[in-house]
Design goal:
By secondary structure, the chain is an all-alpha fold. Helices cover 75% and strands 3% of the residues. It is built from 19 helices and two strands. A two-stranded antiparallel sheet has the order 1-2. Helix 3 packs antiparallel against helix 5.
């Protein structure tokens, strides 16, 4: 029965509509001190990159040289960049903060090194305590440990098993997960969205996923057994029934995870939760990332899944970019938590699917055994068209993540085409060209490291994009 997962999602929807309802009803897990996170009348400036720091420094220098009647026009530009009200006092505090960080940088490096050493000691200590605890307890307790173990097995374990079969532990597990949801909402009242509450909400989401696995093992044990067995044996060795059960469990699990993470992302305005929610959505649609012992599988389980993910990711990207370019500020704020997930997961899954379809080997493995030249050429046109559109839209409208991801897969596309050529005895020439291209790419990335950061850049979702004079 999926009563508990459904009730959990419906409760989350109610929580999204009334965020203050659960904190009033459910008990708190710990006290969120209002003095630990003082709220000021001014919203602090958040630097999103070194480029933003450079822009604010330029504005501060212009303010220091400009006349008083010119301050308002200069501060208007700072407001466009930050998306909040910015005053001269805010810029002065930002400069002081950056100067203190520069002074404390060597000390912070030494502190990080010390913490790394302490962490190593801590891990060794935890491992040693874990290994020696039970032998020490048997040595000291002796017969007492055996008597207590016998009592637990005889009187307590049967009760626990009966409560498990009645579903009592299932309900209790979802209640605990909901307590974490309520606790995360209390941080919004203290710090607003985007604070530590998002991490507590992530804990609640992970707890709810474990609860869903527990529910599945309780009512559908064959599904979970098939899923766990696939971690050790390739799916081609499993029967059709086991493969179907495994896919069913994956769709239900990732679907449940998507709903939970997306609702919590909207409540907390968290890119982190939205990022995981978008990946869960693409896993529902057919993208896979699994471990089979020492072998890892990333991609798609069938060509039908590939087409489904390709079309879905293209539609999602089109909708998000259109909403940013033509939508209102309110709409942009609503979809803002999912911007990182869409730009990373959407672009990667789209171009990965196109790259696989454009491969010569994709069309050589058709069941008919006949190479379909028309479909192969059509796939090349689709790949090149999407690459060109992504680069043009990304460069023109400042969508750096889309443009840089398209450039990356453009290089992979060229490498794949290079591999398809009939080299014969000259195969070493192809390998040499590939390593030469890799050398050039390394030099470019060394000179322009901002390219890698641009792949996950989502600054285009700012309500007011920064204007550069």
């Amino acid at each position: 029965m999926l009563f508990c997962p459904t009730a959990f999602i419906l409760t989350l929807l109610l929580h999204a509509y009334q965020p203050n309802l659960l904190p009033r009803i459910l008990p708190r897990l710990w006290v969120v001190s209002t003095t630990a996170f003082p709220r000021t009348s001014r919203t602090p400036i958040k630097l999103k990159s070194m480029f933003h720091a450079f822009l604010f420094g330029e504005i501060y220098e212009r303010l220091s040289r400009a006349a008083t009647d010119e301050h308002e026009s200069i501060l208007a530009r700072a407001r466009d960049i930050a998306g909040i009200n910015v005053t001269l006092v805010d810029l002065q505090e930002l400069r002081t903060l950056l100067e203190e960080e520069e002074k404390n940088a060597p000390m912070l490096d030494r502190f990080r090194s010390a913490v790394s050493f302490v962490n190593a000691i801590w891990l060794v200590a935890v491992f040693g305590l874990t290994v020696t605890f039970w032998p020490l307890l048997q040595l000291v307790g002796g017969s007492l440990v055996r008597n207590v173990s016998a009592f637990v097995l005889r009187n307590i374990v049967p009760v626990v098993i009966r409560m498990h079969r009645l579903g009592i532990w299932e309900i209790a597990a979802y209640v605990v997960a909901m307590l974490f949801v309520s606790q995360a909402a209390r941080y919004i009242a203290v710090m607003g969205s985007g604070g530590p509450g998002a991490y507590v909400a992530l804990t609640a989401a992970c707890a709810s996923m474990l609860c869903f696995c527990y529910t599945s093992s309780l009512y559908f044990p064959s599904v979970v057994a098939s899923r766990t067995s696939s971690l050790h044996f390739p799916s081609v060795m499993a029967s059709r029934r086991e493969a179907g059960l495994r896919k069913l469990f994956s769709m239900l699990f990732y679907g449940f995870s998507f709903f939970v993470l997306s609702i919590l992302a909207a409540v907390h305005d968290s890119q982190m939760l939205g990022f995981f929610a978008m990946w869960a959505l693409f896993f529902v649609l057919g993208f896979i990332g699994e471990s089979h012992g020492l072998k890892y599988v990333i991609g798609f389980e069938s060509k039908e899944d590939l087409i489904r993910v390709l079309v879905s990711s293209a539609l999602i990207l089109i909708l998000f970019v259109t909403a940013r370019l033509t939508g209102s500020a309110k709409l942009v704020r609503r979809i803002r938590p999912f911007r990182l997930g869409v730009m990373v997961a959407g672009n990667v899954t789209l171009f990965l699917a196109l790259l696989l379809r454009s491969s010569l080997f994709y069309w050589e493995t058709e069941r008919s055994g006949i190479f379909q030249k028309g479909n192969y050429l059509s796939a090349q046109g689709q790949m090149l068209l999407c690459l060109a559109l992504a680069m043009i839209v990304g460069r023109v409208f400042k969508f750096a993540a889309m443009a840089n991801t398209a450039s990356t897969f453009g290089v992979l596309y060229c490498a794949e085409k290079l591999h398809e050529l009939p080299w014969g005895d000259w195969y070493i020439l192809g390998i040499f060209i590939g390593f030469a291209a890799l050398y050039v790419i390394a030099l470019i990335l060394r000179s322009h490291p901002e390219y890698l950061f641009g792949i996950v850049d989502t600054s285009f979702f700012l309500i007011s994009a920064p204007s550069i004079e």
